[in-house]
Design goal:
Blueprint lengths: L3 H9 L3 H6 L7 H12 L3 H9 L4 H33 L6 H8 L1 H35 L3 H18 L2 H26 L16 H11 L6 H7 L4 H29 L8 H8 L3 H31 L9 H17 L1 H33 L14 H23 L7 H6 L1
Helix pairs in contact: 3-9, 3-12, 3-14, 4-10, 4-12, 5-6, 5-10, 5-11, 5-12, 5-16, 6-7, 6-16, 7-8, 7-14, 7-15, 7-16, 8-15, 9-14, 10-16, 14-15, 16-17
Length: 422
């Protein structure tokens, strides 16, 4: 790209806002892969066994792979529009708001803004609530102190930390996830029942799709990748594919271990049986859960604070504490009021918000960018297939949303993922 030098200049500006968003080493695919992987692996992995146990591991595994492909495609669509927008504006740091303004107009901007804010706040509330529960069990101090400690510690890292420091911390946390995950698999797999992994109930697949899709959310950091990698499409594609492939492997192995070791069918929380029958597993699960939540929390704080900064039209040549204050404190306060209410909001966010914001919207923006704009762009298409592929992306998300709307008019039992995260 001819604007490569301008992106380097942007990265080197002494603006705290720019530095806080671009927290990997400029042009580093490795750091970008770790950022995507760390953002993807969050509390969602803890809910996957609960929402897929009825479908069975075999059917759930196929569903995970299909959801992974879908979410990779939508991430690449966002990257394509983002790089084209950077070319038009001549600068990096382009958020979803700027992309929607350019491609979808006022209505599209409103949909993006409210969906983005709602999803991020709902997930941040869940992360703070879950992490405070874990820390309370470990430290033995009140929940409000644990929630405050978690939010202030990681929030300060995001605001005050340099690019290099945040990249190093994120890498350490991801390494901790891999180590604790390996230990968990080694300890729990001794009682693995291989016959139990062959179960496949296809009728139960649709109800698990929203939470599985929620587990693969990383698209909020795609604008960060595009700026940090200076619009290099090859590096961006590699970062997204490899960065999401790591969580895919973790999800499949995790689900196999949990579903293959439980003996009581259809538990609200399969992890509870594992914790009750194997005392060694408890601390390992706690460490893995806390690390997974921490990496995802960092990514969502960076993404939401940058989004709010762009939405509020704040200058980029000075420190911007307001976006971080608005990002950190509302989830902290809400998580301490009545957690049950917000876990219901989390379920709603996974069912509708994610599939709208990171399913329908990317395809709609790309459709507008490719076929409704007269401007000429030299940016290649990251996703082949033209209108057919974009129609599949929109239709797939629309079908799941419609199915869930119909299902909600015929309520059955309480949603297992709400019980799990609570």
């Amino acid at each position: 790209m001819s604007s490569r030098g301008s992106f380097l200049t942007l990265i080197e500006l002494p603006s705290k806002g720019n530095l806080i968003v671009i927290h990997c080493s400029p042009g580093s695919v490795t750091s970008s892969v770790l950022l995507v992987a760390g953002t993807t692996v969050g509390a969602g992995i803890l809910a996957i066994p609960a929402v897929t146990q009825e479908a069975g591991f075999l059917a759930a595994g196929i569903t995970c792979i299909l959801c992974w492909i879908y979410m990779v495609v939508t991430g690449l669509l966002i990257a394509e529009v983002n790089v084209k927008t950077m070319c038009e504006l001549g600068s990096g740091g382009v958020s979803l708001v700027s992309m929607a303004t350019r491609t979808l107009g006022t209505i599209g901007v409103q949909i993006v803004c409210w969906s983005y804010i709602f999803i991020h706040y709902a997930l941040l509330v869940a992360y703070v609530a879950r992490s405070s529960d874990i820390l309370t069990n470990i430290l033995g101090i009140p929940v409000w102190e644990c929630a405050s400690l978690f939010s202030i510690l990681l929030g300060s890292l995001c605001y005050f930390g340099s690019q290099r420091l945040i990249g190093v911390v994120n890498g350490v946390l991801v390494s901790g996830i891999i180590i604790s995950f390996s230990a968990l698999v080694a300890v729990a797999s001794g009682d693995l029942q291989w016959d139990g992994l062959l179960k496949a109930n296809l009728q139960a697949i649709p109800s698990s799709i929203p939470i599985i899709a929620l587990s693969f959310v990383y698209q909020n950091v795609v604008p960060v990748l595009c700026t940090n990698l200076e619009g290099d499409l090859s590096k961006i594609r590699s970062s997204i594919v490899l960065g999401t492939a790591i969580p895919l492997g973790l999800f499949l192995i995790w689900n196999a271990v949990i579903l293959g070791t439980i003996t009581t069918p259809q538990m609200a929380d399969p992890l509870q049986q594992l914790l009750a029958t194997n005392g060694v597993v408890g601390p390992i699960v706690g460490a893995f859960s806390l690390l997974a939540i921490a990496t995802s929390y960092i990514g969502f704080v960076l993404g939401l604070s940058d989004f709010l900064s762009d939405l509020l039209k704040l200058p980029s040549d000075r420190s911007r504490p307001l976006p971080y204050f608005l990002t950190l404190f509302p989830p902290l306060i809400l998580s301490l009021l009545d957690p049950d209410i917000f876990f219901k909001a989390l379920d709603f966010a996974g069912t509708y918000g994610v599939l709208v914001l990171f399913g329908i919207v990317p395809a709609a923006m790309c459709w507008s960018d490719r076929y409704s704009k007269s401007g000429s762009s030299n940016v290649s298409e990251l996703v082949p297939g033209g209108r057919f592929t974009l129609s599949l992306v929109i239709g797939g998300a629309g079908y799941v949303i419609l199915s869930e709307l119909i299902h909600n008019f015929m309520p059955t039992t309480s949603s297992p993922q709400i019980l799990l995260i609570n």
